[in-house]
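Subject: Sanity check before I submit

Could someone independently write out the structure tokens for this chain? I want to compare against mine line by line before I put it in a report. The sequence has 225 residues.
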Amino acid sequence: MQIDIISIVPDLLKSPFEHSIMKRAAEKGILTVQLINLRPYGLGLYHQTDDYQYGGGAGMVMMCEPLDNCISELKAVKKYDQVIYLTPDGKTFNQKTANYLSCQENLLLICGHYKGIDQRIRDIHVTMEISVGDFVLSGGELAAAIVVDAIGRLLPGVLNDETSALTDSFQDNLLAPPVFTRPADYKGWKVPDVLLSGNERLIDEWRFEASLRITQEKRPDLLED
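---
Independent answer below. Compare away.
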């Protein structure tokens, strides 16, 4: 799988993809992340990528021409399954969307800045708009890192135990159950006996019931789905 990311500050994204699970995915050749600097596509001597918005108002807007030239150049050599714009007014990102995107081959992510990107780019090029929450970031880079990480860990061969991702929170509209590790008794704080029993059926039942209880307490909205 390949994910291309357009940004005016691509250096912000280097660290998240050079460590841990994302680094492993790249080394195995399972996921390739290409960072594309929008600045060379900017206009004039100073490679301008933003301008004042028509109609007045505070805040700059990322210009149409640099983005169109960049996206068109990328599209000329590659077919993207989705062209995704990271924006606060997009559809809230969730595990279902991550699962869907992990089944694609080529994705293009656009990181906005300032007041956003020229609407014409959204109308002509963008096929999916994603928000990581009801708040505003300085730019789309952190949101892009979240989306790529959520997708990347789902790709077969990335995690040492592929079943791990299948038992994560939200995969079945439930939150994950509590987890414990050694020692079994620490300061009198004990691990539930059932988890030490070796009885897989009872353990599965306990985990399901615990997930259901926690979801009812913390995220009852998930059960409505």
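---
OP: Matches mine. For the report I'm noting this point. The longest helix spans residues 200-218.
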